[in-house]
């Protein structure tokens, strides 16, 4: 086992979208020691659950095994990094349970998956399955890569916060690790109805800055906005942000975004990779 080895879970449904997410993740961690676990959930459909061991189900299971080995071979051929290892996991449980079991068994540091954009929608969209995974996984970060997203060196990282909560050192580790990979600048964006920070927010800002004192970072204040999702989208475009990072906890910015009426209606999906850190 390599020292400082990262364990990264790559769920796949064998689509072009999930393959694109795998390629992005391999490039993001190109210079790191990593074991990648490629996971497929061959969970039976409702019609086959009653006859779980029927020939139809067994054939589907065998095909999934074959496809997983092909994906691994393709990943090894595409990657060819001596510091990367690949393993495959075939699960017969639903995707959420399969991911949680793999996280626990293999000490996963990150789950990376793709998500399809909205068909015909003008705004952002997260597939319902992706949202479920974000809400369900509380033990490690989740990296979501948009459909057909080509790798761009992440020099600019956006970190939206309302400063209503203190971030601990453990919560900020994934953000700092990500920034360290490419000497990225962390752009802190504060989205708030008020123009000024109150005393609690000022204290939390000061502590956040102390956590990030060895990293390039800057602060941007956004007030009098229409909705948070729109402001984050504008911020991404104006500052050429390469990755969006948020901490997910009760009443967090990301939770507020998911609960905004417009988001409930049309969804939320940044056009850049999105790292969700459990709080």
From TrEMBL:
The family database entries (Pfam families) matched by this protein are listed as: Usp
Q: Which InterPro entries match?
A: Rossmann-like_a/b/a_fold (IPR014729), UspA (IPR006016)
Domain of life assignment: Bacteria
Domain UspA positions: 5-146
Annotated family: Belongs to the universal stress protein A family.
Can you name this protein? Nucleotide-binding universal stress UspA family protein
Q: Which organism is it from?
A: Jejuia pallidilutea
């Amino acid at each position: 086992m390599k020292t400082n080895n990262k364990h990264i879970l790559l769920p796949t449904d064998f689509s072009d979208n999930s393959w694109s997410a795998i390629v992005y993740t391999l490039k993001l961690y190109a210079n790191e020691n990593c074991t990648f676990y490629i996971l497929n959930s061959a969970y039976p459909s409702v019609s086959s659950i009653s006859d779980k061991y029927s020939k139809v189900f067994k054939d589907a299971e065998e095909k999934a095994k074959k496809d997983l080995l092909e994906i691994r071979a393709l990943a090894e051929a595409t990657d060819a990094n001596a510091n990367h290892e690949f393993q495959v996991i075939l699960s017969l449980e639903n995707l959420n349970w399969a991911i949680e079991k793999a996280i626990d068994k293999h000490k996963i540091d990150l789950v990376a998956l793709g998500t399809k954009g909205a068909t015909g929608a003008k705004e952002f969209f997260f597939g319902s399955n992706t949202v479920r995974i974000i809400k369900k996984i509380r033990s490690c970060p989740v990296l979501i890569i948009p459909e057909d997203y080509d790798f761009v060196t992440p020099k600019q990282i956006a970190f939206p916060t309302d400063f209503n909560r203190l971030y601990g050192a453990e919560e900020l580790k994934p953000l700092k690790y990500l920034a360290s990979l490419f000497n990225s600048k962390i752009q802190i964006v504060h989205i708030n109805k008020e123009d000024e920070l109150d005393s609690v927010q000022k204290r939390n800002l000061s502590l956040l800055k102390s956590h990030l004192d060895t990293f390039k970072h800057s602060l941007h204040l956004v007030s009098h906005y229409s909705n948070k999702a729109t402001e984050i989208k504008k911020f991404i475009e104006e500052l050429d942000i390469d990755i969006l990072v948020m901490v997910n906890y009760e009443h967090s910015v990301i939770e507020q975004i998911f609960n905004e009426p417009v988001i409930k209606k049309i969804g939320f999906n940044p056009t850049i990779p999105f790292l969700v850190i459990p709080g």
